[in-house]
Amino acid sequence: MLKVSGINRFAHIPCRFIGTSCLPTIYALSTPPGQRSAIAVVRISGDHSKYILQRLTNSNKEPTPRLASLRKLYHPDQKENLLDTSLTLFFESPRTFTGEDILELHLHGGKAVTGAVLKAIESLHDLKKGFNIRYANPGEFSLRAFQNGKFDLTEIEGIKELIDAETETQRKSALSSFNGENKLRFLQWRSQIVDNIAKLTAIIDFGEDTEIEDIENIIMNVESHILELRAVIQQFINKIERSNILRNGIRIVLLGPPNAGKSSLINTISQDDISIVSQTPGTTRDAVETALNIGGYKIIICDTAGVRDDSSDVIEKMGIEKALKKSESCNLCLLLVDPNNMPLIPESLKQHLASPKFQNSDKIIVLNKIDTISTPEDLNHTMLRIHQEIGEKIPILPISCLSGEGIDNLTTDLITKFQLLSDTSDESNPIIVSERVREILTNDVIYGIDEFLSFKDDVVMASESLQHAATGIGKITGQAIGIEEVLGVVFSSFCVGK
Ligand SMILES: Nc1nc2c(ncn2[C@@H]2O[C@H](COP(=O)(O)OP(=O)(O)OP(=O)(O)O)[C@@H](O)[C@H]2O)c(=O)[nH]1
To answer: Start and end of every TrmE-type G domain (predicted)?
Structure first.
């Protein structure tokens, strides 16, 4: 028979639901500061939001929640001092972003208007009268939302990713965190681990009354569940690592002899004059990085010094060395070839292509200036010569930066490559999570599971290792886990008292 002292031992009270009503009312300019703009939004959250509205509008009228209203705003102590005419929106707690009363003031943009309104709100701070009002700290609105149980940490981090998203793929992946897809996933994993801890706890507490064979079966069963879960979590971590490329940008290096058209290619792809194009060979002498958006992917493209064998210029030589080095650590190298050169590829570049350091890089040969090739036969012949010179079959894409021929094909091929590199070619969205989450998954969750697998003959240690993994997931979402919860699961899902 299970002996526990009082059912409320199992009550699970998430520690974050402590409420924020005792905290100061906070306010902040939620649109970029110091800029001229059509509108600027000041957001206020806390118990005194309604008071602030009433004081600024010089009226005791109760605001209708969620109804936009055009109001004149005055300085609270200088009734004639009109500050602005503003759209005001009041949201009543708890159905708000922070869970507190929220007031939004949609002001006319510009330093003077926002400055005057912020000063007026500041003047309402009066501790003696019980009005604790202050400017918000960075992220404090989201912190309040978390403290009031509106979002878990993964959703909060999703909001940050969403705001930081620069491209379409980053936006989509941030949305999957923000929408709670990751939260659901983590909660499922955690509950699976807790279920299995519960089974082990039952053996620890009631093993003496249980047949050895039954105990062995339970342990085997737990082990097989945890092994399956480990594979799923590892797959998720692998996907995060591939998706990380979306946040940091896919690194492309352009390599090739001087005058092959590297700078022209950047300008053609970006449809902008980013790089200097000139007939003078050796115009680009250093590695120059530019961020681009190609097909919704963030790309960091690096224009490099043209590689030639006979350079005697020290600076140029340094530039060439840097170019070759850069190409070793990129995600994709585009090797530009000018069909009018003889040989097509300089000796030093051929050696670089064959070097072991460069073997793992993804490469495409871009045969530029095909407008200078007269017939399809000559084009085929040039492509054959390239493969003969380098001795391996790297894919070749013929283009002309001048006429635009082949650029669409190149772009399509690049996007397919980006999908593969970032693992976004399947139906599921990429996964962008914070570094914090990635670290906890590896250092706590996978670590705890591996410890469990190594201790499986020692039920107590095995159970503690799983507890470590579950606590790790609790850290990710911001939820605490206690032994009460484990006992709660034992109590509710096991008929231990037989
Ligand atoms: N006919 C033709 N000329 C091109 C094409 N692309 C580039 N050029 C010309 O080739 C010359 C060199 O182009 P760049 O883009 O500066 O070449 P680069 O590889 O960046 O040169 P470096 O900076 O010297 O390494 C310029 O005069 C371009 O106008 C093309 O597709 N066809």
So the answer is: 249-419
What is the distance, to the nearest Å, from the Cα of residue 273 to the centroid of all Cα atoms in its chain? 30
Interval between CA 264 and ligand 1 midpoint (Å): 6
Q: 126 has which bridge partners?
A: 131
**CA 306 to ligand 1: nearest atom:** 25
From the CB of 201, is ligand 1 less than 6 Å away?
no
Atom of ligand 1 nearest to the CA of 258: 25
| Sign, Cα dihedral of 422, 428, 429, 434 | negative
Q: Any idea what DSSP says for residue 129?
A: G
Mean pLDDT computed over 196-204 = 88
Answer whether 188 contacts ligand 1 (Cβ < 6 A): no
User: Domains (ranges, CATH) in the chain?
Assistant: 25-148 (3.30.1360.120), 177-245+434-493 (1.20.120.430), 249-422 (3.40.50.300)
Kindly provide the residue ranges of all beta strands, DSSP E only, lying in 387-490, ordered along the sequence. Answer: 396-398
- The reply to whether ligand 1 has any atom less than 6 angstroms from the CB of 264 is yes
- What distance in Å separates the CA atoms of residue 480 and residue 145, rounded to the nearest whole number? 17
DSSP string, 79-119: EEEEEEEEEEEEE-TTSSSSSS-EEEEEEEPSHHHHHHHHH
* Strand bridging mode 288-294 / 297-303: antiparallel
Q: Distance between CA 137 and CA 148 in Å, rounded?
A: 17
267 ligand 1 Cβ < 6 A: no
3-state secondary structure of 367: strand
* Angle (deg, nearest 10), helices 168-178 and 153-164: 160
User: Distance, CA 389 to ligand 1 centroid (Å)?
Assistant: 22
Best residue among 400, 401, 407 to mutate for probing ligand 1, ranked by most atoms within 8 Å of CB: 401
**From the CB of 284, is ligand 1 less than 6 Å away?**
yes
Task: Give 455's DSSP letter.
Answer: T
Whether the pLDDT of residue 11 is over 70: the answer is: no
ipTM (interface predicted TM): 0.97
State the pairing for strand pair 250-255/297-303. parallel
> Tens digits of per-residue pLDDT, 392-437?
778 999 999 999 999 999 999 999 998 888 776 655 666 777 778 8
Checking if the pLDDT of 280 tops 70, the result is no
CB of 249 within 6 A of ligand 1: the answer is no
* Token duo for residue 33: 């500061």
pLDDT confidence band for 212 (50 / 70 / 90): low
Q: Is 319 in the pocket of ligand 1 (CB under 6 A)?
A: no
